[in-house]
Amino acid sequence: MFKVDKIRADFPILKRTVNNKPLVYFDNGATSQTPQVVIDAILDYYSNYNANIHRGVHSLSQEATDKYEEARIKIQQHFNAKHSYEIIFTTGTTHGINMVASGFSELLEEGDEIIVSALEHHSNIVPWQMLCEKTGAVLKVIPMDEDGSLRMDNYHELLNGKTKLVFCNHVSNALGTINPIEEIIHAAHKFGAYVLIDGAQATPHIKPDVQDLDVDFYVASAHKICGPTGVGLLYGKEELLKMLPPYQGGGEMIETVTFEKTTYAGLPHKFEAGTPNICGGIAFGVALDYVNSVGFENIQQQENDLLAYGTEKLLEIDGLRIYGTTHKTSVISFNIEGIHPYDIGVILDKLGVAVRTGHHCAQPIMEFYKIPGTVRASFAFYNTKEEIDVMIEAIKKAKMMLS
User: Fold this and answer.
1) Kind and range of the H or E element at 94?
2) How far is the CA of 183 from the CAs of 69, 152, 354, in angstroms?
3) Catalytic site residue from 132, 168, 279, 361
4) Angle 257-262-263 from CA coordinates, rounded to 5°
């Protein structure tokens, strides 16, 4: 049985105060908080078996290697990849996207077409623009509707024999929209195009099955799902990872090196040059253990309840508009008429409430709505309705002060 008070006790930071007020943390879309068990895993690594991996015969190195590769298997199992070597450790979602973009820079030709959605984070726009500049490929965009959903009829019209790649987020970071990625993937494959899904915002709320989705590439970050910063994953189908050239040259990603020629290591090491974030990878695995112990059905139920309650209470405030009203996860982006979102965010912070303000690295969405940005409250399973009540009162105070 899900007991939020027991869950909250697992997160030390939730006990602190900000500006002499109990912390209300509603910036989970930017990064989630970290449970004690993950913090303990980080401390354990540096205290007891800090060593480089894959290279040493001594006990510490072997222990660190075993723990790191065990974490890779945990990630494989969580995302249901067919093989553990289809999981590439990265520094985060952005790194994974750039790895794929870099690989395809040698495979695309002038006139090829790639498709992105209007709901993307900048990290799933800029690398593809750079790819187009290098290759002469053409970037096309799936437009969005007023409710924050993608115009899927337009997507199907964009697909053709020239389409080589399609990129879309699973969940919009700015609006919380859950995109129909099953339809996007299936339609792209009919034209022989490959699909990369940005799962950064989805993985805290949804447990993706990459084999069931039949997705070609899936990327995510540990820090969105109760893990540490600076580590993430790139999943790729084995045949596609073998097809792509290495992203970086260096140690670990080689089989043999001479001054005449270098041959590359097999998967996953081909894409993991240099010393990785060993501690981060291990802690990522522990974070997945933790969220699975909570249970994704419990997580989704709690967050859906918070989303419904927060939406209801916010809409009772005169002049408040919510952006993105279609099927979504626990994100509410809103503005109050006549008040800049930054000003609201500053006052909420003074009252102990942490929200995100601005364009959320999704400027095309803000341009669509003709606004400078929004206030974004993003909930996690350790948040409560009582915290939402605190935020609502803080917003009312901010509105009075700024009107």
Assistant:
1) helix 93-104
2) 33, 9, 36
3) 361
4) 105
Q: What is the pLDDT, as a whole number, of residue 326? A: 96
Q: Sign (positive/negative) of CA torsion 367, 368, 372, 377? A: negative
Radius of gyration of the chain (CA): 22
Asked if residue 142 lies in contact with residue 115, where contact means CB atoms within 8 angstroms, the answer is yes
Closest CA to 331 of 28, 122, 32, 33: 28
Mark whether 361 is an active-site residue. yes
Residue whose C-alpha is closest to residue 331's, from 318, 340, 322, 320: 322
- At 379 the pLDDT is 98
Can you list the alpha helix ranges (DSSP code H) found in 169-233? Answer: 181-190, 210-213
Residue pair 364/343 in contact (Cβ under 8 Å)? The answer is: no
- Write out the two tokens for 3: 């007991």
Give residues with Cβ within 8 angstroms of 5, minimum separation 6.
none
Q: How do beta strands 232-236 and 113-117 pair?
A: unpaired
Exposure b/e, 204-227, CB count within 10 A at least 16 = b: bbbbbebeebebbbbbbbbbbbbb
* pLDDT interval class at 264 (50, 70, 90): low
Instruction: Report helix, strand or coil for 173.
Output: coil
pLDDT, tens only, 5-64? 999 999 999 999 999 999 999 999 999 999 999 999 999 999 999 999 987 789 999 999
**pTM, entire model:** 0.95
> Before 268, cis peptide (omega within 30)?
yes
CA dist 35 and 42 (Å) reads 11
Give the chain's end-to-end CA distance (angstroms, integer): 44
Q: Is the pLDDT of residue 248 over 90?
A: no
Cα 141 from chain centroid? 21
**Which is it for the CA torsion 333, 334, 339, 345, positive or negative?**
negative
252 closest CA partner among 49, 74, 52: 52
User: What is the Cα–Cα distance from 398 to 296, expressed in whole angstroms?
Assistant: 35
What confidence score (pLDDT) does residue 274 get?
Answer: 87
* DSSP per residue, 223-265: GGTTS-SS-EEEEE-HHHHHHSPPS--SSSSEEEE-SS-EEE-
